[in-house]
Amino acid sequence: MSRARADEEEYWHSSKFRAFTFDDEDDELSQLKESKRAVNSLRDIVDDDDDDLERVSWSGEPVGSISWSIKETASSSTSSLESRDSSLQKGSSSYAAFPKQVSSYSLSSLFKGRNRLPSFQSLSDALSDTGVKNYAPELRRPKAEYKDYSSDWSPKDTVRRMQRGKICSLERFRSLQDKLVLLDEAVAGHDGNVITAVLIFLKRTLRREILFRELEVRQVALCHLIHFLKETGEQKLLLDLLRFLDRTEEVALSQYREHLNIQDVEKRREFLKGCIGLPFSAEDTSHIQDHYTLLERQIIIEANDRHLEMAGQSEIFRKYPRKASILNMPLVTTLFYSCFYHYTEAEGTFSSPTNLKKTFKIPDKQYVLTALAARAKLRAWDDVDALFTTKNWLGYTKKKAPIGFHRVVEILQRNNAPVQVLQEYVRLVEDVETRLNLATKYKCHDVVIETYRDLKDRIQLTAYKCKVERGSAEEEKINSVLNNTQIRWKN
Amino acid sequence: MAFAGRRDVPEPPDFGILKRLARDQLIYLLEQLPGKKDLFIEADLMSPLDRIANVSILKQHEVDKLYKVDSRPALSTSDQFCFLVRPRIKTMRYIADIVNADKMSGRSRKYKIIFSPQKFYACEMVLEEEGVFGDVTCDEWSFYLLPLDEDIISMELPEFFRDYFLEGDHRWINSIARALQLLNSLYGPFGKAYGIGRCAKMSYELWRDLEEESEGDGQGRRPEIGNIFLMDRDTDYVTALCSQVVYEGLVDDTFRIKCGSVDFGPDVTSSDKSIKVLLNAQDKVFSQIRNEHFSSVFGFLSQKSRNLQAQYDRRRGMDIKQMKNFVSQELKGLKQEHRLLSLHIGACESIMKKKTKQDFQEMIKAEHSLLEGFDIRESTSFIEEHIDRQVSPIESLRLMCLLSITENGLVPKDYRSLKTQYLQSYGPEHLLTFHNLKRIGLLTEQSAGETLTAVESRVSKLVTDRAAGKITDAFNSLARRSNFRAISKKLGLIPRVDGEYDLKMPRDMAYVFSGAYIPLSCKIIEQVLERRGWLGLEEVVRLLNGNEFSVSGNAGLNGNEFSVSGNARLGAGGQGAVGPTALCPIQTAAWRTIQPGSPSALSSLSSWGAAPSLRSLRSGSWGRREGASSSS
User: Fold this and answer.
1) What ranges make up the beta strands (E) of B267-340?
2) What is the top-level taxon of the source organism (chain A) (predicted)?
3) C or N terminus of chain A, fewer CB within 10 Å?
């Protein structure tokens, strides 16, 4: 024990900076595990009480936090919070004596109040030593506000007052000239809230063609109106405006966006069909077309497969019941699904992978990755094999992949492929270093041995001997390689 | 604690005042509706609210039940409803529906809406349209600033980024100006204000405007904040798009830090429950490793756990009296440390597991190549494979954006092919995402007419200076070219590495990205503060599309720097993208940057981008280290 610790100590003192890689899983993790063990071993002395642990509910929120309480109200609306907080003294607040004045607007001009209220104890206490003025909300409505409706504020003053959250009547800005001056002042004041307020007024009091025309040369204001229309959902007016501005692509996108609100798949499909004719760019038109075709396919596949699953005749559906419907899933997910459930189907059926590949012009790389993941998940190693096997004209077979074989190995490994399968692909990894790494990591001993043999690296091979089991076939193989006098070792 | 190493750096101001102010005002507003009431809270206000108040405070002020604002109709018997909400039109309609339903069924209740941080005219318009104006009373809760740590304040405005940068809506500028006003009155007057970016400039102007009419009674006080720095998010997207490799960054990457706290699941706590942990300077373990490169963290934790073990071991030879002392004086602290240690070790373990499972190493390599401008083809095919394998949609977008910004747009052929594959992998509706990203300038296609764009950018620069800014935005999308290569060359943002970059004793801020990139935003602040202005940085300013300013105030004796930045967490998607604005104090040399807060994701897609990366840029340790090394 003490020996091990001394060693470790030495390690920490002696090791200088090493390049850090996240691939150094073993080293770093074991180090972490070590620390964890050390800390955990202390747990029994420490965990006798949990006094400084936060009380946390099942959902992870600290008990008493607001988020937690809301979840509680949601889950059991009958139980009042009172029982839980019964220890609290009610009404003991120092604010109880606070004068209750009606003030609906003036709070916005907060942080100006000079009136030091005796009841604002904690606040003034907190602030008095820092010498800061008192920040009580302004309690009385300023007298000036009563004048609003009668007096003639200039456009500039109107905007300034609105920026400060005060009410201003805009009704007296009746000539187009006045309205536009007001709008320009609002824009110059940089407050989007006021700009929008003026636009609401203009929208109400001007014919839309006039409004559009004036906004065309006022881009900042225009952005505000467009955003406002989007938020309030005035789609028709928005489209009219965009058409007026000749922003045809935005018109198309804005209409297409609506499909997100349509839940019913049949209706959604119909809607998408209508979108194909919208003035998209040529590139996007084909994406929209694909979107429509994909949903159409999914509806057919879904109907068929639900039927199959219900009937209970198909083995694959019995063995691997579907977790979710395929409707509205991305194309690659659909491809995965069809590689999983419909791999062997003829190209003629809508659900066959090859049909999908053709219809949507899925690139080889994409297709192979997806098919591999699906077949590996089913542990159909023959299919995996077939995926990469090509025959040349002489009838020789060869393994080829549009993706790196290290990627293939990774996917297979994630699906718990047996070593025999794995090693076949590890062997095909071109880069020697990567190959060695993968082979060592996944214990593909044969590959490691062969690679060292090919590298003529006797030292590494000898070192590897202690990583294989004593008396195993692998050890024997290493010995026979080491004893092979034909090999001219480099070391 | 974080400043102990530097004598010339003053203590940060007491930002706790901000919390007390917000709490007191909320209580005051609740008292405006006397008697028992049910409180409906907007989902994304819950975490900020948790930081300043708790259930018992609400209950003391006669809040009976708490509900989340959502689409379900409320079943409640209370006579009074109070809604604590963001000024959003959707929420107004939700409230109006409740009021109208009550009216229909002949129920009479009192309703109060409290807007945070402010009310919008458009909201009142909706209330008027829905026929409930007058049935509800409205108030504003001026909760502009939430201190998340000793040296980070956030506005927690998730929608700022999308509203301003994508939609071109200026509605939050007033909130920023008021936040500045609040800071100035509490901790100012600021000695000097610097800034860059159009939004920064507008915010500054509006703030000055607001300031003019309030009497300056802060005069004669000792200012606690020396300088402020305002910066637009779009000045520096790259920083936000790179993977950070310091501990705090990786924690955020893996678990998502929201509003300064994180949920550690059962795999971290090694028990069956989750724990919500506040991550700040109070956490003695965290504060020591938050800014360290991840590779140094293991060593630190292992050292720390051996020390702890030794401390416990001491109790072996103790007699009764010593034992008593030990239990009464040390045990509690040791236990606390033990708890923190095991949490952070657990977190490290989870991070390692997750990162080794993904191709994190490869991803970092691709990022670094993009930053340096080498092997673009290889990186592009890495991104392609990332997309094909349906690995995280956000990561794929992030890498594409990084490619676009560093290369000034994608080659049209690549753009088309990556876009097509993206739509195939993650869903065709992301057509809308691509459109948004293009508009905002994050993911663009290289155009043939390079020269044309240069002309337009010059035109737009001329126009910008016109007060009304009438035509500016028309050119904005074109002017928003990143010029990344030129800027990074000019400012030396890509460190030239001779041999190994020493991550344990880094020589510059690039260590947060394993030595690959010095964050542009931090570099600019450093340069401007050193020069006390923009003099000599004209070329950089031009490349960043201008709008720089620097204004001297009256007194500036204090060394605290404060930086305000239109910050981002950006999402795309047809449904939503978000981004908050953030404020942060920057110690003279210790680059404390921004805590943009916890933007809630409106769509599954939207939680990527700037926020996480910037968070780890709070490389306070850099400043400390610099101080330490220069004194030794």
Assistant:
1) 275-278
2) Eukaryota
3) N
Contact between B349 and A32 using a beta-carbon 8 Å cutoff? yes
Nearest-Cα distance to chain B for A130, in Å, is 9
Residue A156 burial by Cβ neighbours in a 10 Å radius (0-12, 13-18, 19+): middle
Least confident of A262-271, B18-27, B515-524, B543-552: B543-552
pLDDT, tens digit (0-9, with 9 covering 90-100), for B194-244? 999 999 999 999 999 888 877 655 556 678 888 889 999 888 899 989 988
What tokens were used for A368?
């192979």
Mutation for testing the B interface, residue in A10, A14, A47, A69 having most B CBs under 10 Å: A69
Alpha-carbon distance of B291 to B283, in angstroms, equals 13
**Cβ separation of A260 and B339 shorter than 8 Å?**
no
Angstrom distance (rounded) from CA A42 to CA B335: 10
- Which ipTM value was assigned to this complex? 0.82
Cα atoms in the Cβ-side hemisphere of radius 13 Å centred on A276: 12
Alpha carbons B349 and A29: distance in angstroms, whole number: 7
- Cβ-defined contact of A35 to B345 (cutoff 8 Å): yes
Hey, are the CB atoms on B312 and A45 less than 8 Å from each other?
yes
Contact B356 A25 (CB under 8 A): yes
Q: Does residue B158 have a cis bond before it (omega within 30 degrees)?
A: no
Note the pLDDT tens digit of each residue in B139-183.
999 999 999 888 888 898 888 999 999 999 999 999 999 999 998
pLDDT for the residue A301 = 93
Strands (DSSP E) contained in B126-171 are: 136-140, 146-149, 152-154
Pairing of strands B582-587, B560-565: antiparallel
Whether B294 sits inside 8 A of A259 (CB atoms) is no
Angle (deg, nearest 10), helices B431-440 and A248-257? 140
To 10 degrees, what angle do helices A219-232 and B121-129 make?
40
Quick check: B38 and B80 in contact, CB under 8 A? yes
B contacts of A43 (beta carbons < 8 Å)? 338, 342
Phi, psi for residue B147 in degrees, rounded to 5: -75, 125
CB distance A104–B140 less than 8 Å? no
Instruction: Nearest by CB to B221, from A93, A131, A187: name it.
Output: A131
Give the tokens for residue A301.
Answer: 């596949």
DSSP one-letter string for A56-97: B-TTSPBTT-HHHHHHHHHH-SSS-GGGTTTTSPTT--TTTT
Q: β-pairing, B110-115 with B136-140?
A: parallel
Q: Do A66 and B54 touch (CB under 8 A)?
A: yes
Q: What is the pLDDT of residues A187-236, one digit of tens each?
A: 999 999 999 999 999 999 999 999 999 999 999 999 999 999 999 999 99
Cis peptide before B223 (omega within 30 of 0): no
Instruction: Give tens-digit pLDDT for A350-405.
Output: 889 999 999 999 988 899 999 999 999 999 988 988 888 887 777 777 888 888 88
Min Cα distance A217 → chain B (Å) is 6
Show residues of chain A in contact with B184, CB under 8 Å: none
Cα separations in angstroms, B422 against A210, A366, B166: 42, 11, 21
Q: A interface mutation test: which of B40, B115, B140 has the most A CBs within 10 A?
A: B140
Q: For residue B218, what pLDDT is reported?
A: 53
Average pLDDT, chain A: 77
Please report the pLDDT score of residue A129 as a whole number.
40
Angle between helices A405-414 and A419-426 (to 10 degrees): 160
